[in-house]
Design goal:
The complex is a heterotrimer of chains A (248), B (220) and C (298). Chain A is an all-alpha fold and 248 residues long. Chain A contains seven helices and two strands, in the order ααααααββα. Chain C is an alpha/beta fold. Chain C folds into two domains: 51 residues, no CATH class; 217 residues, Rossmann fold. Chain C contains eleven helices and eight strands. The chains are: A mainly alpha (248), B mainly alpha (220), C alpha/beta (298).
Chain lengths: 248, 220, 298
């Protein structure tokens, strides 16, 4: 029993999607030049759709988790009424008198998450990281072969981890041996931030490239190419911007 | 209403829930009925986590409706938001009305709008960052100190090594980027990871013990 | 808008330069060769080491905003899994990933795959699992508890494949496609660490059998993944668009029917990186000149 499709959508909708995609893209990019009515309009449309999508996934998720399926509410397991009722208690957030009822579901989630966090963090982010550092290879077959040798990398790693950790010690003043250590640690942290910067540029550029590829490569039935509309969209932006300025 | 109901019972619930999770992890073997019961507990909490966003949603709609009502700044644009909400909601409710299991997402048009309208806007808005990062590269990054130089040099080497052009210019660039990523960056990030772990664990303990109460909201 | 340091020209010229120069390689590809990085090779090696019939979880934890990076990563890996005869359980811990995953799986397994015989035996799409980290932990402990029905409304126990996947101990490989939280770190914390040693077929890491996780991520998060990669908690990583292109190339070399499409994108990426480096250099030169000029220009 798999009934996801209600009705068949006409294929012409793909053309509409392409047209909308181009206009939305150009209207949003026009924000880079100056905020204008079109960029604001698309922004507000986005917020509206996002709100309904959020509502839909919350509603669907609650249904598919609590109501439908084996051992759920529809099969007579009434334990699932509890989370549904507790979920409704969130709305007491807007009541002055009964605000305290909002705290009940929140306190359950906070408690469960805090308990999970303690176990998960200790094992994977704390113990495992220390263990992996302690077990870095320093001696053994092949450790000092090749360039850079694994042994040298291990030494750099160990120095980097210890000195960068001392940078976060605020119990003592950073002078003397601790001062030297924190200074070295600072360079390792800067290298870390440099990598993060490289990664950020890479990622953001990929997203922009993705958008450009949409503009240049989208087509419909060999006669329509999305980029035909780019100059039209640009002209509309200019006209609307001029109209907006004339209004003051 | 007494302070017990308003404050102490929620604090006690937090403590008991956290306590159960820790005990279940360390003292209950997988496959035992008690451990299975905690899986059922987290399964019900899943519903609570996902519906928490409802407050934000109501607040957002209230903001836009009030803005229209008061003819506030950009109220015309708030009507766009509200119209979008109404139309998209009707499309979703069609799924609820016609689908056997009452899913909104079962409406074909609803998922179409997501994949073909919403996705375009989301991707484009996020990609604006590419322009900001390019202009920040020109205006903000200055070799003022040795630390800043390390940051910039490592960042530039990463950029050269992680794009095909780097290997074309000099075949050593990809290897250098790989080394920077897996050795100095890993060292610094491991220190940060350990630091975050300590911070998160201490915050969780404070929360369970009722020292940290911000999540309960303001005193009313 | 942040306050701007006074510069000789408007930031909008930078935008125009960026737009025009990045467009060129997209319209006239440079066809630059792409070397395969060790991290991408690790993903490939971990995947081909599996036997037909092994169970792989594909976790689609990203939204539309990082689709250009994550989509080619997970598509090529999903195709690879299908060709190797691996059985796939797809999930999404991000609400936004739910519909995207349906579209991506449909592209690999064919439109309407949810109505074919392969559905429920070769591939299952559970859909969005609510609860973020809590949902992840529930899924690792007991898959049937994590969601009542799959994405299409079937109860999980009614699917043959889900009869075999009762907890994460039945999974051979976890493929995590992520761009934030919950993502690879949460899988490591709430699934891998929690279930270590539960399946003796998992590789040994520091004396414990750990669920092997391969991740494909937006390039922003990759530096932060390195401690986990070097500790063996992550087996391999596809790093942003470059990693996606590399994996697509690896798949395309063995299965020519899978197209290699990231070439122009990576050429454009090369131009973008060079541009950003040039912006930094020019920015510093103008800054140095204005400083040595006794602040005349500022």
């Amino acid at each position: 029993m798999i009934p996801p499709n209600i009705g068949q959508l006409p294929p012409e909708l793909d053309l509409f999607a392409a047209i909308f995609g181009v206009f939305a893209t150009i209207f949003i990019y026009s924000f880079l030049w100056k905020e204008n009515p079109l960029s604001r309009a698309v922004e507000h449309l986005f917020v509206g759709l996002a709100a309904v999508f959020t509502l839909a996934f919350m509603y669907d998720a609650a249904l598919s988790q609590a109501v439908w399926g084996t051992n759920r509410l529809a099969e007579g397991n009434f334990i699932w009424i509890i989370p549904i009722l507790l979920s409704l208690m969130y709305f007491f957030f807007f009541s002055k008198k009964y605000f305290f009822l909002y705290r009940y579901p929140v306190s359950i989630v906070a408690g469960v998450m805090a308990g999970m966090m303690i176990c998960g963090m200790i094992q994977s982010n704390f113990l495992a990281q220390i263990q992996a550092t302690v077990e870095l290879p320093l001696v053994g077959a092949g450790v000092w072969e090749g360039w850079p040798p694994a042994g040298l990398n291990s030494i750099i790693m160990i120095i980097g981890i210890i000195t960068a950790l001392t940078f976060f010690f605020f119990t003592w003043e950073h002078t003397g041996a601790l001062g030297i250590s924190t200074r070295i640690g600072r360079y390792f942290l800067m290298a870390t931030f440099g990598s993060a910067y490289g990664g950020t540029v890479m990622a953001r550029m990929s997203l922009f490239i993705g958008r450009l590829r949409f503009l240049y490569e989208t087509s419909y039935q060999d006669w329509f190419w999305a980029w035909y509309l780019v100059p039209i969209a640009a002209i509309i932006v200019i006209l609307v911007a001029l109209w907006d300025r004339s209004k003051g | 209403m007494s302070l017990v109901v308003k404050r102490y019972i929620p604090l006690a619930i937090t403590f008991i829930m956290g306590f159960i999770m820790v005990i279940a992890t360390y003292f209950l073997a997988p496959g035992t009925p008690a451990r299975d019961a905690t899986a059922l507990l987290t399964a019900t909490v899943d519903v609570l986590v996902v519906t928490a966003g409802a407050i934000g949603l109501v607040a957002l709609l209230r903001h836009h409706l009030m803005n229209i009502n008061k003819r506030g700044r950009f109220w015309q644009y708030s009507t766009i938001t509200i119209i979008a909400v109404i139309i998209y909601l009707i499309i979703g409710l069609y799924g609820v009305a016609t689908h056997e299991q009452r899913y909104m997402y079962a409406s074909e048009l609803f998922s179409w709008v997501y994949s073909n309208i919403y996705v375009h806007m989301d991707m484009t808005i996020f990609s604006l960052l590419a322009f900001f990062i390019a202009s920040a590269a020109y205006r903000a990054f200055r070799l003022r100190s040795l630390e800043a130089s390390v940051l910039l040099i490592v960042g530039s080497l990463m950029l050269l090594g992680r794009a095909p052009i780097g290997g074309v210019i000099w075949e050593g660039f990809p290897a250098i980027a790989e080394w920077l990523l897996t050795v100095p960056n890993a060292a610094g990030n491991r220190a940060i990871t350990i630091g975050i772990a300590i911070g998160a664990i201490s915050l969780a303990i404070r929360q369970l013990l009722g020292v940290e109460r911000g999540y309960l909201g303001p005193e009313r | 808008m942040p306050t701007e340091e006074k510069t000789p020209f408007d930031r909008r010229y930078i935008y125009i330069v960026l737009f025009v120069l990045i467009s060129i390689p997209l319209l006239y590809p440079l066809n630059l060769p792409i070397p395969i990085s060790p991290m991408s090779q690790d993903v490939w090696d971990a995947t081909v080491a599996l036997s037909p019939g092994d169970i792989v979880v594909h976790s689609f934890d990203f939204g539309p905003s990082t689709l250009p990076e994550n989509e080619p990563q997970c598509s090529s890996h999903l195709f690879h899994c299908r060709e190797l005869g691996l059985r796939v359980v797809a999930v999404a811990f991000w609400a936004a990933g739910g519909p995207l995953a349906h579209d991506i799986i449909s592209e690999i397994y064919g439109e309407g795959y949810e109505n074919t015989a392969a559905y429920g035996t070769e591939i299952v799409y559970i859909g969005y699992i609510p609860g973020a980290e809590v949902g992840m932990q529930t899924f690792g402990d007991s898959t049937w508890d994590a969601k009542g029905t799959d994405h299409y409304g079937t109860s999980l126990p009614d699917l043959a494949l889900m009869q075999e996947v009762r907890s994460v101990a039945d999974v051979t490989l976890w493929a995590e496609w992520t761009s934030g939280t919950p993502g690879e770190q949460q899988v490591i914390q709430f699934i891998q660490g929690r279930h270590q040693g539960e399946n003796t077929d998992w590789p040994l890491v520091r004396g414990e059998h750990l669920l092997p996780i391969v991740a494909g991520s937006t390039a922003v998060s990759v530096p932060g993944m390195m401690p986990f990669y070097s500790a063996g908690q992550l087996v391999g990583i596809l790093n942003g668009l470059a990693g996606a292109g590399e994996y697509e190339k690896l798949v395309n070399d063995v299965y020519p029917q899978y197209p290699y499409e990231q070439g122009p994108g990576l050429d454009a990426q090369s131009v973008a990186h060079i541009l950003v480096i040039l912006f930094v250099v020019i920015g510093n030169i103008t800054w140095a000149i204005s400083k040595s000029g006794g602040g005349k220009s500022s």
